[in-house]
Structure formats: structure tokens, C-alpha cells
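Archive transcription. Copying these from loose printouts into the bound notebook so they stop getting lost. Printout 1 of 2:
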Amino acid sequence: MKIIDALNGFSKSPNPIWIMRQAGRYLPEYRELRKKSKSFMDFCLNQDMTLEATLQPIKRFDFDAAIIFSDILVIPHFLGQKVSFKEGVGPILEFPDWDKIINGNVDSEILTIYKIIKNVRSELAKEKDLLGFVGCPWTLASYMINLGKTDDFSRLINFVSTWPLFEKLINKLIIVIANHAIAQLKSGADVVQLFESWAGAVPSDYRQKWLFDPAIEIINLIRLTVPDAKIIYYGRGVVKDAIYALESLNIAFGISEDVDLLSLPATQSCLQGNLDSKKLRDGSFKADTLKILEFARDRPFIVNLGHGILPDTPIAHVEEFVHMVRNGK
């Protein structure tokens, strides 16, 4: 299992490859499948459809890992803040009952996700790794408080810095996120990726408290139950700080597209990334891919994008990217 080997510190040639959001809208077969479900959340909880969606990119591109088809927002959804998705807008969350969220339990329907993981693991080739994933507290809280995406993080930061329930919400999310990750690992996921997608919006003075301390708690809780758990932390825009704060926890680090690989702190940790999704879409990805492969030579490194693949990315570009990685040039 090439991803596991890299996470265990082994250098492989060619480097293993998967891409974020690889099961999704850029695939014509996914778009056809998605038409059969009335809503995105219904799709995420349909065992047959999610099995097929998860395996589609493996069948087409032979990636080294599948990532379970789901969404980070299943956590607020199953805490009672219902989530819907609107085309061209993104996620829309109900106005929250904070008392219910902070003091309540997760809806038992979340167990469907673990059944899906078991189904995928039984169908996925043994040499392929299976990734589960969770959203991290800051990113989930930003969606929950804003009732969706925000373009004004300064307003959010000003609000939560004095909001008396913010710490309670973060503490609740730490427990729920850790339990969700543990359940995925126990159900057959080989790796779990922690997505702190909006980490770069957090001012440096708050990063330890809002990003890294919660991540440390989540990782330690996971390892209490699954001591050998393989974990990738993707803190978009804060990877240098994340390496300094979390490296001792024996995890891997995802690197967003805005980071110069040569500027990273020296580390023995496995790294993952960081091709620009826009360049993969427009076809100008070859030079950057060669730079990534040169950097990745003789070190544990998983080739990936710096962010999720864009919906209008041509299939031919993905095929060529995979070909370059497989051939090391």
C-alpha cells in the first residue's frame, strides 16, 4: 500500500498519487450518477451511489488511494444543524440551536457513513489505500456560525473572539470530530485526513489556540483508540506553522498550492501536495509537476493537488498528470 508506505517514512519511486475531490464533478460518470439523487446529502448517505462514486476515479485513473465520498459538513448536519447545497452557492446551513448542538448527541444516521466505508473497503483492491476524512473545528465552526461560506473572515474573527459560546463549540467539535475519525478507521479506512481548509484566515496570534491546540487534542484522542492511526493534516495556508506545532505527533502534512516547497522547514515527516488546481485545469501544470517530482525524490512524499480538483478540469489533463507522476518525468 503505497500511501501507507509513504506515511511510514519510506521513499518510493514513483511517488504515490491521489487528488483531493477526485470523486466528484469533473467526472462525467459522476455527474450522471448524481442526477439519480434528489439532494447532495441524500447522495452522501446512499450506500450504492457513494460506493460507485468513490471507486469511479480508481477505475479511470488507477490512483493509489480512494477517498470516501462524503463531506466535512456531515458533522454539523448530524449535530442538528441541517445542511443543504445550492448550485452556484455552496452549502447552506440552518440557523443553529446552539444548546442542542453543544449539549446534544450526534444523530445515529451517521452510522450509514461507516457502513459505506466497510462496503468500499470490501470492493477496493487490497493494494489500494482508503482514506477517510474529517473537517477540523475552526473550519466547521466558520460554516456553522455563518450559515455557509463567508467572504468576510475579519467579521467572523471579531465576533468569535468575544462570543462566550465559541470555546464550548470548539470543545464539542473536538470530541465529535475525533469520534468520527475513529469510527472511519475502525470501519476500514487506512488513513484519515484532517481538513482545516480555512486555516489561512486565522491571524497568527490565534493559530495555536484555534487551530493547533484542537488538532493536537483530536490526534491524541484518535491515537488513544487507534494507536497506529495514519493521519494527514491539511491546514490550508499555514503548513509552515503546522509543521512546527504538530511534527512531534508523527503525522503527515498536506501542502496548499501557494507554498514554495523549497521554503518549507526541514522535516522528516511525509509531505503531500501541492500542484495548483487552476494550472491542472488550464493545462499549464507540467513545469510545476516536474518541480514537485524533483523535490519529492528520495523522501516520503504523496503527490496531490494543493486544493480540490476544479469541476471543469479536462480529463486529459488529469491523465497526463498521472502519467508524468507514474513515469517520474
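Printout 2 of 2:
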Amino acid sequence: MALHERLLEANGGSWHCPPERVEWSEDLRKEREDFCAQFEGVRRWGFKDPRALLALDGWLQRFPGAKLVGTIRHPMSVAHSLHRRDPNLHSIEEYMGLWAAYNRQLLEAWRQYSFSIVDFDEPDDRYVASLGRVLRKLGLKEGLASRVRREGLLKGLASRVSQERSPFFDPALRTHRQEGVEGLPAHIAELYLELKQIAAHW
């Protein structure tokens, strides 16, 4: 996240004011290499950061075989969540514009590389099922260390031994859950519906 922030700042922008173009300077490419060095010898690793959409070209130059996964969420839910976090930075309408800027990048990347997209607005059981499909497609499964971090030592060990499926997320953390496109600007509604349709087929 810090690397991405420095990258965006070097290109005259920030996470909340995306620059028109993003170019990796030699210094930032070196910082990227230093970041990657900590995973040397690790067979699989990855990260999740919305800013990666703006920095994607540089990551794919470094890792041309990288596996991508996208996620979408209702634009109004995102706008309300961001506005609650920092109401002085942007208005609700401006945060929706920011949603559109990021999700246009997501759609453009999907058209170029064709990867799985999960829909955070799906009902809990369908959302968890879609995550399971993505994990299987990537050849991944949750390890013991992850379960212990997430559930605590005793519960993590017990659920691993029993092979009990535990949710990847806490549904109580969902806030500002929205449905439908009523009240959205037409261009944002169109983008959201197109991404939802893509997610439904993965």
C-alpha cells in the first residue's frame, strides 16, 4: 500500500485522485524489487489493494504470469463507506466518481486478461461459494496458520482437524449494503451492471 501511494504521488496523484497515467521510475522499480525480495523462495504469494489497478502494468511487467482476481461492490456502498471514513475528503457523489475510475480500470484489465471477479454484494452463502471456486481455480486452500490467526489457536486447530468450513469474512462487517441501480448516474449503473454480469459467470 505504501509503495503504491509513493507511486501514485510520483505520478501527480493519490488513491483518491488517480493520475491519468502511472509510470514506474527506476527508484520505484527498485523499491518494488526490494518488496518482492522478502518472498524469495515462497512458492505462492499475493496481495490485495485497490491501488494495484492503477499500478497493474508495472506488476505485470515484473510478474507476467501473475494470476489476477477482481472484486466488485455496489458503488453507493463504497461511496458511503469511504465518506464515513473521511467525510472531508470528498462528497458522496465524488466518491462514486472515484468508484467509477477504479472500476473502469478493472473492466479494462478484465477485457485484456480475462480473470475471475467476485461480487461482494452476493448473499453470504453465494459469496463464500464464489470465493471457494476462485481458490480452487488458483489451486489454493487455507492453511493452518491462517486459520489460527483468524480464529484463535484452539478453534483454528479444531476446525482444521474436523475439516469444518469456516467463512472467509464476518458478515457483520458488511455496512451500507445496497441493491439495484436506482438513483445511480447512468454511466455508473451501466458499469456496475456489466461487472455484475461478468462476476455471475465466474
